[in-house]
Known about the structure:
The chain is mainly alpha-helical. It has helices at 2-8, 20-25, 33-65, 99-115, 134-147, 177-189, 194-205, 209-215, 217-224, 254-283, 286-320, 330-334, 350-356, and strands at 88-91, 94-97, 164-166, 231-235, 242-246.
Amino acid sequence: QISKQDWNARETSWDFQQNELLRIQKEDTQLSIEDVYDLYQAYWKNKFFQLHKNEESLNQTFIEIYSLQEELSPDVALKDITILQQEAKIAEGQLQFQPKEIVAQFISYAVGCMFGRYSLDKPGLILANKGQTLKEYLSIIQTHLANTGAKTQAPSFMPDDDNIIPILEDEWFEDDIVGRFKQFLKVSFGTKNFDTNLAFIEEILGTKIRKYFLKDFHKDHIKRYKKRPIYWLFSSPNDAFNALIYLHRYTPDTLYLLLNNYLREYQEKLNISLQELQRLEETGNDKQQSKAMREKEKYRKIVSELQQYERDILYPLANERIKLNLDDGVLVNYNKLGKALKTVKGLNDAAAKTKVKKFDWINTEEII
């Protein structure tokens, strides 16, 4: 039971229900996330050593049954206890938890809630079939809340409406991933301790939450899902533009929405900012003029990169209205979107594409 609970505590388990920090917290939003993290350590430390005790007890039982006292010892090394493989390690004979991994699991669950894969209102998978929409999400959650006698049937945290969440250096869009994560943190752990909770998360990560999403989240997701990601990162050549989508909510219109509502709108916002910087360069004081010159050069490079990304990659793909067949698997589908997606070694690099093009059960002309 302990090993089963440990296995099911991870998103990649078929029977995953919810993030462990939220399971332990339950409904007490007065607790800070640091308090819950301490409770998490105490809970799983107890489980770890209980499993260790159980294994040694079983060893002792079989040694006695077969009279092997002279040949075998019932002792089990702590490193041979196989739960908490990602969340802790044995160092200097002690069980040491890995706080960054535990916080990363919480953030991964938060992103799942942003897309409707999970919900704070109902355990387990919510949207996990091809082309499911928010209408189905609302129906599932409202039915569950009604059946449990909740006072309201309104979801406590709504997923993103168009299945596209931008990850940029600043908050250029209302559904910016950092803004959405902060909202999730307020809903799940309350507003009272929000600043303290965010500071604790950033301290554990060793970086600001925006930088984590820009630099580390996708890498973590690729590793967590063993190079078969369910959240796909659209990224321009030098990462000036980034946006996540959820594979199971993808439709042939997704790239069109990404192009028109995000990439082109981002360019328009940058051009407006460039006009303001031009004004500052002409009328501002020396400090403002110097800063404006630097910012102008930076924004011009970004605009140029976005124009190239649109012209050479995203616009042609959007016009194709590409369809995905989930039965073909992530490896095949990921390679249908070419250079629009972030390149990942072993997933959509040159070697991976060569491998996929040898599959005789797909239309290899769709691999680009």
